Amino acid sequence: MWWLAKRIGTSLLLMWVVATIVFLALHMVPGDPAEMLLSTGGAMPDAYAIAELREKLGLNRPILEQYGAFLAGLTRGDLGASLVDDYPVAEEIALRLPRTLELILAGTLIAVTIALPAGTFAAVRQGGAFDRAASATAAVLQAVPVFVLGTLLILVLAQWLRWMPAGGYTPFLENPGRHLLLLSLPAVAIAKGLAATIFRMTRASVLDALSRDHVRTARAKGLTPQRVLRRHVVRNALIPVTTVLGLQMGTLLGGTVLVEYVFNWPGLSTPLLRAVEARDYPMVVGIVLTVSGLFLLINLAMDLIYAALDPRITRG
């Protein structure tokens, strides 16, 4: 329990650090944010409009007072309102975040389901035809950018063969089959790099575990290969694989921006790109903090999985 409390405390501390960095970064941007917002399109705003917007954004208050109000708003879940349409940032994120998470989870499920068994089998049959073919495929997948693969999937499966829709979104409750169909292509695009990484790490970890003394001892005792693999190899090999999976799932939060754009999937990428273009600082800050918080939650979840795989970790 103490180990878990320390991990949660560390995550909260890191979240505070991230929020502070984001706040300071906004105030280090050259120029007056109010003037920059009102100057969109080359228009020259008057002094009264600038002063009014500065007051609305709270930029006319001392920086420590702004910082305190910023942290107080975060503790209440108040991320402010969009400067473009005055829509609450928290509500916009709450609407779109589940769609991004669904895409990430679907891609992760596809990657893990394919890569873990493939990596294990390739290690057990090291040097065989499957090992060589799977390793070559993983190398190619890692080299292909996600937006290139997404474009190829649309070109081949949607335009040439007409097996799949090119993109879009339909709510699950409205049409479950259509929803899953539209989810499949972006999920595959998300999964490609993760699957290649998990395959390579699984193969390397299983090969390392197979060479350990306790595995050779288990074989000498007459245990079947399947039992040795299940009890003495896979469990130990999963720890480094879990580490890579946690890190890669964090990077997927950024990688989904391109995938959502290519497949017109209405996740967080749409408001983020629109906010950056319009200099909508509250929306940008809200999405950045949300993604940072998710990354920390993923790391915490990986720590819990480590503890389940190897209870000795909680004693450290």
From TrEMBL:
Query: Gene3D superfamilies attached here?
Result: MetI-like (1.10.3720.10)
Cellular localisation = Cell membrane
Classification via PROSITE patterns = ABC_TM1
InterPro entries recorded: BPD_transp_1_N, MetI-like, MetI-like_sf
Q: Topology relative to the membrane, per the entry?
A: Multi-pass membrane protein
Kindly state which keywords UniProt assigns to this record, in alphabetical order: Cell membrane, Membrane, Transmembrane, Transmembrane helix, Transport
Transmembrane stretches in the record are 12-29, 103-124, 136-160, 180-199, 237-263, 283-309
The record's section on Pfam families has: BPD_transp_1 (PF00528), BPD_transp_1_N (PF19300)
Q: Where does the record place the ABC transmembrane type-1 domain?
A: 97-306
Family, per entry: Belongs to the binding-protein-dependent transport system permease family.
Its recorded name reads ABC transporter permease
